[in-house]
Design a protein that fits this description.
single chain; 271 residues; mainly alpha; two-stranded antiparallel ribbon; 14 helices
């Protein structure tokens, strides 16, 4: 699972600003969590999310101290590229090659549509969740509500919580199935809800953008993210290239980004 969430979330925090109606804005850290959540529900409805969706999604949501403990005790990502890639890539390489073959036709259509090679997508898929095996077990709405109640990055996580409610609203995933990493990342390649809303696509044609269960949706949505960040069709992804800069949009860590590129290169060379 992605070890450097903070680099993703902190990058988002510079871009996100909540424009709530002042009278309805839920002030972080003041009063009880339950009272804050009631204000948040009113704010969500004021922002156009149906009351029924808000009520059903947030019913029974409680404060999770363990999520704040994880957020407050993150260690700086300090492994070297050699250490990290050496630990992460070899155990995933054989299965990654098999995934390239198993989903070859889907990945071919994805590359034709978005211009992103299958090797890059499969490398991300493997590094993030071991190809969908380790999605995380935290209740997404509970995690995001707990982080939004905390005042460290309240606006960021409140915006992500509202987008998680929008995922429910449009019918992609029911609230009880929204589970993932402790900081709100969802799906087989770990999208924050805001990126889920922006980049998730229904590639299997069933009317839902399901990044938990639909492999075609997962792979195509990951490609759509990279294409949206400026991926250049037919170009390499060597360090310093324009496409490597796009990989860094996926994860700001130089070590993690280099490992994605290295993994993809190994997959491209595999028999």
């Amino acid at each position: 699972m992605n070890p450097s969430f903070s680099l993703k979330a902190l990058a988002l925090s510079a871009l996100l600003a909540v424009t709530a109606t002042p009278a309805l804005a839920a002030a972080c850290g003041t009063g009880t969590f339950e009272a804050w959540l009631e204000d948040l529900k009113k704010e969500a409805v004021a922002k156009g999310i149906p009351q029924a969706v808000v009520a059903s999604s947030l019913a029974g949501v409680t404060f999770d101290k363990s999520v704040l403990a994880r957020d407050q005790n993150q260690k700086v990502f300090s492994q070297t590229f050699e250490e990290f890639s050496g630990r992460m890539v070899p155990p995933r390489l054989a299965r990654g090659s098999n995934m390239l073959k198993q989903y070859g036709s889907v990945l071919g259509r994805i590359e034709q549509t978005y211009g992103v090679p299958g090797e890059i997508i499969v490398a991300i898929w493997g590094l993030e969740t071991d190809y969908g095996v380790n999605l995380g077990k935290f209740q997404t709405l509970r995690s995001l509500a707990s982080l939004a109640y905390d005042c460290r990055r309240s606006d960021l996580f409140k915006a992500e919580l509202l987008d998680a409610l929008r995922i429910v609203e449009r019918g992609d995933i029911p609230p009880q199935d929204l589970r993932g990493a402790w900081a709100g990342e969802i799906g087989q390649t770990q999208f924050m809800p805001s990126n889920y809303i922006k980049y998730a696509v229904d590639f299997d044609g069933n009317g839902k953008r399901d990044l938990l269960r639909s492999v075609p949706d997962v792979l195509a949505s990951t490609a759509n993210f990279l294409a949206g960040k400026g991926w250049q069709r037919g170009k390499d992804w060597e360090v310093g290239s324009a496409n490597f800069a796009v990989i860094k949009e996926w994860n700001r860590s130089e070590v993690y980004s280099r490992t994605i590129g290295y993994f993809a290169t190994q997959l491209a060379r595999a028999p």
